[in-house]
Amino acid sequence: MGFFMNEIAVLYVDDEINNLNSFKASFRLDYLVFIANNASQANEILVENPQIQVVISDQRMPEITGVEFLESVKEKYPSMIRIILTAFSDLEVFERAINMGMIFRYLEKPWHPLEIKIAIDNAFQYYFLSNQLHSKNMD
Hints:
This protein is of the alpha/beta class and 139 residues long. It has a single domain (9-138), classed as Response regulator (Rossmann fold, 3-Layer(aba) Sandwich), CATH 3.40.50.2300. It has helices at 17-27, 39-48, 66-76, 91-99, 113-138, and strands at residues 9-13, 32-36, 54-58, 81-86, 105-108.
């Protein structure tokens, strides 16, 4: 399936395979879904698919936290919108990351499909409007 301008491309990163499979099954008809079970696999996907607009990452992963991963995404791909998922309440960490512009928002696990869909749609809307504004400012 090729990428079209009206298609929202989402990367979901989680070290739990069941969560990845559930995410893909839930959203494959709504979005162009990419999944990765660690940060290095996610980075490979991002290099091959720079058109991805929304990146969702679990916070607790073995090698790197979700906030650390999304911070690296922001450095390499500043226009991608970043969302963090967590089953734990690290509210201070997330508030700081949001305030510093590292993440767009955070969601709690277990996630609900409607809540994720709304978050992705809001993130894409922000992505789209930010890019339009940037384009106008370049004219």
